[in-house]
């Protein structure tokens, strides 16, 4: 048993707290809102993000980052990706020098174009043996309900990945190991953008052929960028690639697919964002990933068109028509 801190009391952070508690660990959950933490401690329920789900008694919440991080051997980072740097600058010094930091976040930082593991390394000074990533087809509500699921624990140090695998293996949650941190992070980031595109197709009323085409070509775009950045192409055929992509693009629980569906129905980005506290990471990441693809000379038309849609330069119908009307080429081009 270890002491684990989960920094972020949103749906995924709370759900992963359940995984760690089920694996036998004491879990300190940090949240920004006092009421959320009180509900977790007194009612054992996160009424805002996972209402109706009873949390294990070994999950305790606090708005005090020092209290949450005290003595933690594992620090799980589950804040929105674009706020990671600010959060780490505020309480990164409180992290134990030997603690392993585990990213649940799926994004590329705006401006710097850094993956989340790179942001962690830059702000904390931690080496690659202290930074890991967990990614896969892990919709938070289903994980919290203990429905069977698998995921990937990636760390450049295989021994650390194996140790983390043991720490989060439960009867309902099966983690696999990988040393390809780059591939796992890119798979988790780009799938949110593809999920937006698939949601747009849903909102426009298109069927499974259209959506399957977008999913498949989206996977090809992800693999192209990954290979250009040194990732193992086989990673994109696994849980952190295809697995996560399928879950995000097919489930009504997916925030990004749902956001895209509302765009397809004619709502604006501002209207959708005003109606929810949940973060659809692909809305921000489409800009940074599109810029990243340009830096590496990689063609990513779906990502580019989603960026144009989010920025108001393209309508949902124009997005789909532009993809279909592109010049023909070999599939493996």
Please give a handful of descriptors for the protein shown.
15 helices, 8 strands, eight-stranded mixed β-sheet, 333 residues, 50% helix, Rossmann fold
Structure in words:
Helix 4 packs parallel to helix 5, helix 8 runs parallel beside helix 11 and helix 9 packs antiparallel against helix 10. This protein is an alpha/beta fold. An eight-stranded mixed beta sheet has the order 3-2-1-4-5-6-7-8, sandwiched between helices. The model has no long low-confidence stretch (mean pLDDT 95). It has 15 helices and eight strands. It folds into two domains: 177 residues, NAD(P)-binding Rossmann-like Domain (Rossmann fold); 143 residues, N-(1-d-carboxylethyl)-l-norvaline Dehydrogenase, domain 2 (Orthogonal Bundle), CATH 1.10.1040. The termini are far apart. The chain is 50% helix and 12% strand.
Please tell me the total number of domains: 2
The portion of residues assigned to helices is 40-55%
CATH domain topology of the largest domain? Rossmann fold
Strand order of the largest sheet: 3-2-1-4-5-6-7-8
Note the gap between the termini: 49 Å
Mean pLDDT figure: 95
CATH class of the largest domain: Alpha Beta
Task: Give the helices and strands, then pairings.
Layout: E1 3-7, H1 11-22, E2 26-30, H2 34-43, E3 59-62, H3 65-69, E4 74-77, H4 84-91, E5 100-103, H5 116-124, E6 131-135, H6 140-144, E7 149-155, H7 158-167, E8 173-178, H8 181-203, H9 208-228, H10 239-250, H11 255-264, H12 269-274, H13 281-295, H14 301-310, H15 316-324
Parallel strand pairs: 1-2, 1-4, 2-3, 4-5, 5-6, 7-8
Antiparallel strand pairs: 6-7
Helix pairs in contact: 4-5, 8-9, 8-10, 8-11, 8-13, 9-10, 13-14, 14-15
């Amino acid at each position: 048993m270890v002491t684990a801190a989960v920094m972020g009391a949103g749906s995924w952070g709370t759900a992963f707290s359940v995984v760690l508690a089920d694996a036998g660990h004491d879990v300190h959950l940090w949240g920004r809102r006092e009421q959320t933490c009180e509900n977790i401690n007194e009612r054992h329920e996160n009424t805002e993000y996972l209402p109706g789900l009873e949390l294990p008694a070994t999950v305790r919440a606090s708005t005090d980052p020092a209290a949450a991080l005290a003595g933690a051997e594992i620090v799980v980072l589950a804040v929105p990706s674009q706020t990671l740097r600010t959060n780490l600058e505020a309480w990164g010094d409180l992290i134990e020098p030997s603690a392993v930091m585990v990213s649940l976040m799926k994004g590329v930082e705006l401006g710097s174009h850094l993956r989340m593991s790179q942001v962690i390394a830059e702000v904390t000074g931690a080496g690659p043996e202290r930074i890991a990533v967990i990614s896969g087809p892990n919709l938070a509500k289903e994980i919290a309900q203990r429905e069977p699921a698998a995921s990937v624990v990636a760390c450049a140090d295989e021994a650390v990945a194996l140790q983390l695998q043991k720490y989060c293996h439960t009867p309902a949650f099966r983690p696999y190991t990988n040393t390809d941190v780059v591939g796992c992070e890119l798979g988790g980031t780009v799938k949110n953008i593809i999920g937006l595109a698939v949601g747009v197709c849903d909102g426009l009323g298109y069927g499974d052929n259209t959506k399957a085409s977008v999913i498949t070509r989206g996977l090809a775009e992800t693999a192209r960028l990954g290979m250009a950045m040194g990732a193992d192409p086989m990673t994109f055929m696994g849980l952190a690639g295809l697995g996560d992509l399928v879950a995000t693009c097919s489930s009504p629980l997916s925030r990004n697919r749902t956001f895209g569906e509302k765009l397809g129905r004619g709502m604006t980005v501002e209207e959708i964002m005003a109606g929810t506290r949940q973060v659809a990471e692909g809305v921000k990441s489409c800009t940074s990933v599109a810029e990243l693809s340009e830096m590496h000379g990689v063609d990513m038309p779906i990502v580019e068109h989603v960026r144009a849609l989010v920025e108001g330069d393209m309508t949902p119908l124009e997005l789909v028509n532009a993809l279909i009307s592109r010049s023909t080429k070999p599939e493996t081009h």
